[in-house]
Design goal:
Two copies of one chain form a homodimer. Chain A is of the alpha+beta class and 342 residues long. The first copy, chain A, is built from eleven helices and ten strands. In chain A, 47% of the residues are buried.
Chain lengths: 342, 342
């Protein structure tokens, strides 16, 4: 049974996500220490608009893009109606904040965050998540990123993270490469406080299985608002620590080349598989804002394969596959033995 | 009324396309003058295989990829069945040669070619084409490329080029950028010698309109074989002249940066809009061969816009829109006056 949203639900969600953009940008400028964000506001002819912020050529960030948008209209796209037929015929409203940070140093991971809220008549839901894409990962960093998001979820309910972690692994997957985009994080969608937690389409995946085992759960609108708030606030401490630890790592052309090569995978995921990107591009979204997620530079190389037992090999063999980062003792031992634990 | 293919149609088409790969590679090695192609043969578990050839870090070509493949199976993909329901339930066979050349010098255009043949029971067709993507174009080069393909088509029938030129403009179009990929060339598909020449889905386009005006036409299998042969053979002379004319042009970081930026558009087209690429990636094709079309390096820059009346501005204002390259006298005058005619 779907709970009704509170009065002022739209403006509450909007403020939450707009403030999230604001807070994150302020802290990222301090973290970068050199460049500031430039802002462009834009209006969507069909209704609503947004605020795109980009920081270029910083000390830490080769490019950092943080978008906020609030859009509305009367005709829902078919892709939404097929997923939520109850929404048909209603005016709709959507607001969201998303970011992708492309650091220069290959030892600092690329990272992505997105939180969003949707409403159409009686239908509403929250969605979002954050995921990390390292090139030269350390297990302690990976654990820190996951633990931060686990704790943010557990403040609401201990079951959430059990589903959102594998959901993230399943969503950020490059089928044509048989690789995960990175080490994951959390991802959730269509959270309206009723039914099973997993509301995706992959009936064979772990997220669906675990969600079934947990059973149906009920949450209020405020619970899910707090979830977005907690997770949004968890992001910067989760990432900042990694940046500070790795930003003084020295690197050569070899590491830079590998980073650029792996960024090619980021492009492939976003343009081939990411529903949000493809949907935006095919429905007359603001192209420059949508494609702010793409790296400032990327490389492709036919037939590239990393050397056996190299750092680059570990990335493709271990850190682009779903793992139990916190508890896998073999993985821990391997990382300690090979100097990639801390 | 569909004409029957001749005996040995499959092996004839295969030889044509395999020889095309061979001839083109041999000539490209001479043109490059430094590096040679490396070859990898591969087997498709479901039936057939291919021969991928890549030349890297040449004098002229930063990367040149030329693929041949011959694949077959018993279950047709849904995308083909929806287009050609008569093919359903039959074993199918497809063979093709495709190439993308990424030269290093920004004054030499990127170029793409693809010719293919398909058979399933009583159904068969030829498809293909070639298109040019310059960064710093000259009208004489553009005219030469188009004229070469016009003449190749006219040897078979004077009406073909009238449809295949706008079909190319419509196919290689980035809707999300409102730009053509480049200056076009020719493109055709589903040519089985019966009915209207245009067999695409864009009922509002020029190709459909002109095809309707021309009316239904009949061709034999041999006619369409010869068309692929003529066009395939026209490719190298069409492109070689441009390479030779432009390869000694000096360039600085500015032109190189713009080339890398525009290569980003090439990536966007191939991953977002190109039916062949998306289909291949989503149906377990050989990823490395499919993505040989991507540039060795590409760049994205949020909010980039070329300076008014610069060479870069001409590209986006004139050379990424469909034009009547041969006959537009205003265009000719503009190019002469601005030193970009010859």
């Amino acid at each position: 049974m779907l709970n009704a949203p509170p009065k002022e639900s739209r403006s509450k969600a909007k403020s939450l996500l707009m403030n999230l953009q604001e807070k994150i940008c302020n802290k990222l400028e301090i973290l970068d220490g050199k460049e500031l964000f430039k802002e462009e506001s834009w209006i969507r002819p069909e209704g609503g608009g947004g605020r795109s912020r980009v920081l270029k050529n910083g000390q830490i960030f080769e490019q950092a893009g943080v978008n906020f948008s609030e859009v509305y209209g009367s005709e829902l796209p078919q892709s939404i109606i097929s997923q939520r037929p109850e929404a048909k015929g209603h005016k709709w409203f959507a607001t969201g904040t998303s970011l992708v940070l492309h650091p220069r140093n290959p030892f600092i991971p690329t990272v992505h965050l997105n939180y969003r809220y949707f409403e159409a008549g009686p239908v509403w839901w929250f969605g979002g998540g954050a995921d990390l894409t390292p090139y030269y990962p350390y297990l302690s960093d990976v654990r820190h990123f996951h633990k931060s998001h686990l704790q943010a979820c557990e403040k609401i309910n201990p079951n959430l993270h059990k589903v959102f972690k594998p959901w993230c692994d399943e969503y950020f997957y490059l089928k044509h490469r048989k690789e995960s985009r990175g080490i994951g994080g959390i991802f959730y969608d269509y959270q309206d406080g009723s039914g099973f937690l997993y509301k995706g389409k992959n009936q064979k995946g772990l997220a669906h299985k675990i969600s079934n085992e947990i059973g149906e759960l009920e949450f209020s609108w405020d619970n899910l608002y707090s979830l977005a708030e907690n997770c949004g606030n968890a992001f910067l401490p989760a990432y900042e620590l990694i940046v500070k630890k790795r930003s003084s790592h020295e690197y050569s052309n070899k590491e830079r080349d590998f980073q650029l090569y792996r960024r090619g995978r980021y492009v492939e995921f976003n343009l081939v598989w990411d529903r949000g990107t493809i949907f935006g591009l095919q429905t007359n979204g603001r192209t420059e804002s949508i494609l702010m997620s793409l790296p400032p530079m990327a490389r492709w190389e036919y037939g590239y394969a990393p050397e056996e037992n190299s750092r680059e090999h570990y990335l493709t063999q271990i850190f682009t596959k779903p793992q139990d980062w916190q508890n896998d003792k073999n993985l821990e031992r391997f990382c300690i033995e090979n100097g990639i634990f801390d």
